[in-house]
Amino acid sequence: MSKKILTGANGAPVADNQNARTAGPRGPVLIDDFHLIEKLAHFNRENIPERRVHAKGAAAHGKFVVTKDITKYSCAKLFSQVGKETPIFARFSTVGGERGSADTVRDPRGFSLKFYTEEGNWDIVGNNTPVFFIRDSIKFPDFIRTQKRDPKSNLKDPNMMWDFWSHSPEALHQVTILFSDRGIPDGFRFMHGYGSHTYSLINKDGVRTWVKWHYRTQQGIKNLDPQKADELAGTNPDYATQDLFDAIEKGDFPKWGVYIQIMTEEQAKQYKENPFDVTKVWSQKEFPLHEVGYFELNRNPENYFAEVEQAAFAPSNVIPGTGLSPDKMLQGRVFAYADAQRYRVGTNYQLLPINAPKCPYANYQRDGAMRFDSNGGGSLNYEPNSDETTPKQTNLREPYFPADLSGPAGIYDHREDGDYYSQPAALFNLMTPEQKQLLIDNIVGSMQDVKTDVVKRMIEHFTKIHPDYGQGIAKGLKLK
């Protein structure tokens, strides 16, 4: 076997990688040691900005397999026949913590899927919960700041998040899930996933159907006791990351069944609630789950930075036969996610191998930092043009979001819907006495150092969900 020669980034061989050039044996170091300067300058730039949200995560490659025919709902080619396989990349994450934070904190888990289809990349960027804290994307920066650090102390402050929630009762459904026994999953393999938002599917006739995506773990649901989670945060903060990696290395490939709830456009117009409100679920009695297929994760990344840290998911990645909805949170994420990737990774982030489509692609994007392909060569960089060999639009019906818009443009109060309590009440009533007590104990523990006026507002909300809910928390906090 021939010995590999160490080279610089320009390919030139490196004579000495152990010693810097100096003026004499004791120095000082000379600035013309370009190999030293290159090493230090590259090292200084090895960390790209971490994700503002979902910074700590783990991921794996796998496959999606169709098991049921849904072609009457979608003309997307990945659903074209039963048994068809499509490569995927899945990333799991916590939400509020930094890259070095613990995997076992009480937090929603990000649950993002990238499908490398023959028609382009399709991303569903969701969570392990079917709902979210807010329903309008204009509140997203405000909400996320409450999950980060206090600008003065640089410490996490429960006053921030509880204060925000006390003024945002639409968050109560998600808060109840977060502080329930499912608030700390036992690793990433033992939790369900959801697209959370309402999405759409479009068939070959242009008929649109609203859908909710569900991924049901085939490993079973397992959650961590809060005390065990705290212990792991100090002894093995990468607990979930290690669990996923080790399972795949051993050949114990995790699987999730893929299902959809289906609602027609006519049903949506008549539905008693806003079907595009991500703080609420659709009744599974009225809109049962329909099997679509399953996905399996069967290959770990070879390099964490290249494949996981640089992975860029965005709900703007849609393909023919799939689409979005008027969900106000989803609409904001369509812009925000892709824009975050342009800032975090660079304007050419979609050219990186982990993000690039596996099908042929062509566009008129040119230049920008880190453009490492041919940059379009000598081809034209504008359109329309007279060169028949350059990329041309398909002139097919717009497949993503057929417009059905009405009403004057304006700013509408998203809190005019005052039913914040019925769905968390239904969830609370489903719980066993032990689950209810754990929920109450978890909230009491979180609110120990929260200001009295905030606590009182929250107890009013919890009492409206169920008297036992509010009274249990008041008792735990020793309040009347």
From TrEMBL:
Keywords carried by this UniProt record: Heme, Hydrogen peroxide, Iron, Metal-binding, Oxidoreductase, Peroxidase
Positions of the UniProt region annotated as Disordered: 1-23, 373-393
Function: Decomposes hydrogen peroxide into water and oxygen; serves to protect cells from the toxic effects of hydrogen peroxide.
Biased composition (Polar residues): 382-393
Descriptive protein name: Catalase
Transmembrane domains' residue ranges: none
Organism: Commensalibacter oyaizuii
Catalytic activity annotation: 2 H2O2 = O2 + 2 H2O
EC id: 1.11.1.6
UniProt-recorded Gene Ontology molecular function terms: catalase activity
Family classification: Belongs to the catalase family.
Catalase core domain location: 7-391
PANTHER family associated with the record: CATALASE (PTHR11465:SF9)
Keyword Glycoprotein: no
Pfam family name, one: Catalase
PROSITE patterns per UniProt: CATALASE_1 (PS00437), CATALASE_2 (PS00438), CATALASE_3 (PS51402)
Cofactors (names): heme
